UniProtKB/TrEMBL annotation:
Name of protein: Uridine kinase
Gene3D superfamilies: P-loop containing nucleotide triphosphate hydrolases (3.40.50.300)
InterPro entries on file: P-loop_NTPase
Organism for this UniProt entry: Flavisolibacter tropicus
Lineage, opening ranks: Bacteria, Pseudomonadati, Bacteroidota, Chitinophagia, Chitinophagales
């Protein structure tokens, strides 16, 4: 089974992935989208988006743009690890952006946050407490990170404590479910 977990930064994707791996007690491999960010020398969109390029110079790189993700390597790694493991969990901010990745997912869990909750969590992270950048992350997610319609998915309210039993029921069901769980 290939499980995708998505949501804006600070939503709890990695925490949920670790919980699922621990609870399912099957041979599981976790893939984190952050490990698939291309080095800036691979980016080819500078000429296409000069204003965007200027903002990137300010920050050195922009992990919130799909062009910065090596989706081909991610796709190939998911395929490889799905042959070697019972479960592969692929989690990240833009995990459903690429149609090839979406096509691999048996189940998808989307963790929603309100913008206020996201900003609160992001600003409390002492390494990333720049309001301009936090707004950029939010806007990028709204633009590129909400591709889950049509997937067998469960939407969780990340503003509240996640209903972990609902997650386990969703993952153990063989039926196609498209549901929102708001606790």
């Amino acid at each position: 089974m290939i499980i995708g977990i998505g949501g804006v930064s600070r939503a709890g994707k990695t925490t949920l992935s670790s919980f699922i791996k621990k609870k399912l007690r099957k041979k599981t491999y976790e893939i984190h989208l952050d490990h698939y960010i291309k080095e800036s020398s691979h980016w080819d969109f500078f000429a296409k988006f000069p204003a965007f390029y200027l903002s990137m110079l300010y920050r050195k790189f922009d992990m919130e743009h799909p062009e910065t993700i090596d989706f081909t390597r991610l796709y190939n790694d998911i395929l490889l690890h799905s042959q070697q493991n019972e479960i592969v969990i692929a989690e990240g901010f833009l995990i459903t952006y690429d149609h090839r990745i979406r096509g691999l997912l048996d189940k998808y869990i989307h963790i929603k946050l309100t913008k206020d909750e996201f900003m609160k969590r992001r600003m409390n992270d002492f390494k990333r407490n720049n309001e301009w950048y936090a707004n950029h992350v939010w806007n990028s997610f709204m633009k590129y990170g909400n591709y889950y319609q049509g997937l067998n998915h469960l939407v969780l309210d990340g503003n509240q404590q996640v209903d972990k039993e609902a997650v386990l029921r969703f993952l153990s069901s063989s039926e196609s479910i498209k549901a929102d769980v708001m606790t």
